[in-house]
Amino acid sequence: MSITRVNTFAFSGIDPIPVEVQVQISRGLPAFIIVGLADKAVTESRERVKAALTSMGLALPPKRILVNLAPADILKEGTHYDLPIAVGILSALEIIPEEEVFHYVAIGELSLDGQICPVNGVISATIGSSQLEKGLICPHAQGSEALLGGDIDILAAKSLLALIQHFKGQQILIKPAFKPIASRKKTLDLSEVKGMESTKRALEIAAAGGHSMLMVGPPGCGKSMVAHCMTGLLPDLTLTESLETTRIYSSAGLLSYAAPIQRPPFRAPHHSASAIAITGGGTKVKPGEISLAHHGVLFLDELPEFSRNALESLRQPLETGTISIARATSHITYPAKFQLLAAMNPCRCGYLGDIERECHRIPRCKEEYWRKISGPLLDRIDIIAHVESISSKELTCPSKGEKSESIAIRVKKARKLQYARQNTLNNELSSVQFKLNHDVTTMIENASMQLRLSNRGMLRLLRVAQTIADLDHLVEINVASIAEALNFRQR
Prior knowledge:
Layout: E1 3-12, E2 15-26, E3 31-35, H1 40-43, H2 45-55, E4 64-70, H3 82-92, H4 98-101, E5 104-106, E6 109-110, E7 116-117, H5 122-131, E8 135-139, H6 143-146, E9 154-157, H7 160-167, H8 197-209, E10 213-216, H9 223-227, H10 239-251, E11 266-267, H11 275-279, E12 280-281, E13 286-287, H12 289-292, E14 297-300, H13 308-312, H14 315-320, E15 322-326, E16 331-335, E17 339-344, H15 364-370, H16 375-379, E18 383-386, H17 392-396, H18 404-422, H19 438-451, H20 455-471, H21 479-487
Parallel strand pairs: 3-4, 5-8, 8-9, 10-17, 10-18, 11-14, 14-17
Antiparallel strand pairs: 1-2, 2-4, 6-7, 12-13, 15-16
Helix pairs in contact: 2-3, 8-18, 8-20, 20-21
C-alpha cells in the first residue's frame, strides 16, 4: 500500500505554488476520492481520468483510490490537475516508473479520449519547475510556449498514451522548438495625423517619460487616432518586461501565439467595462485590463463615461504599479505598471468653445461633466493636452507631419538617458532626485500658489519638466522646461 507522488502547481495570480499529488491505492470498497480543498473542476477530474484510461484499454482496479492534493489548506482550482492525477495513478499501477516521474512537474487537461489539452499558466509552471530543478510535462500544443519560461527539460505530449510510450522507451518525445515570432502589427503613423502639433508634442513627452496623459477636445477632432499612434513611439520591451507581460497573458489564456510579447500592449476597454474588468477579479481572480496593459498603454476613451468605481480603482495602481485583489478565499497581487492614456470631450455636449454650436448651459455643462472625474485621479494625470479641431482646408491638404519612426528615435534616446541617470523612467522620480536652480525654484513656488498644486501635483510637474529637458538635450531643468510643463497642467 505504497504512495506515489507527482509534482504540479497551484497558481496565485501569475505565481506558481508547488503542489504534491499523492496517490494511494488500497484494499476496500471500490472508490475514487480526491481530497485537498479541490474545487468543482478538480473533483470532476476523476471522470475525465477514468474515461481517458478506458480509451487506452486500461481499467482502474476495483480498489479504493485516494488522491490527496497537498498542502491541503490551499484552494486547488482549474483543470490542469487532470494530467498529474492520471500520471500518479499510472505510476501507482506501475505502468510508468515512479523514479522517472519524480524528475518532472505535470500540468495539463485530459479529454475523454486521452488527448492532453492546453491550460493556462504554462510559462509560470516552467519558471516554477526551474526553481524546483525539475522538468515539465505539458500539452503538446504549448511546448514552444513553455520554452519561454526557461531552458529546462520539457516533455510536450499529445496524449496520455504518447507519454506512457516515452517513459517505456518505445517512442521518445522530441523536445519542442521555438515558434517564429509573429510579424509586427502595423500601427497608425503620426504623419497621418494632420495638424494638432501641440498634441503630438504632448504625446512625445508622454512616451519619452512614461507619463499619464489626458486629451480634451471636441468630438471627431482626432483624439482616438492620436492615441492609437502611441505604441508606434514606444521602444520594444526588454527581456524582463517581455517575460512579465507574456506570463500575464499566458495566465489569462490570451497568448494567441506561442511567442513572447515584444511590443508594448495597447488595451482599449469600452466605457461600459466594470471595475472588476478593469482591475481584475471574478470568481477565479483573473487579471484585468490594467494588468493586461502591463509595460504598455491603457487607453480610456470617453473617460467620464466610465463608472466611478472603475475610475477610482485606477488611483492605487497608478502610484504603485501593482493591483492587490482581496477576496474571501484569496489575496492576489498582479503587476499593473501601465501608462494611462485617456480622452474626453470638454463638456457633455462636446462643443465648449465653439461659437456656432456652443450649448446654452455654460459653465454648468462643463462643471457637471468634469465632476465625474475625481480630483485625486486628475491629480495623478501628468499631462492634459487640449485638442482643437482643424479646418476643412487643413484636412484636405497633403499631410506633412513627422513620421512616428523619427519621433520614436528621440523617445528611445531620452529613455536611454533616463535609465543611465537614475535606472528608471522619469515618471518614477522622487523629489530628492531633481537639481533645480534659483530661477526654476522661484517659478515653481509661484506656479504652485497660483494653480494651488498639491505636493503630488508639484512632483508630477517636475517629472514632466525633466522629460522635456531630456528631449531638448539639456543638462538640467530650466525655466522653459517648467513653463511648457505648466502648460500641460491646465484644465
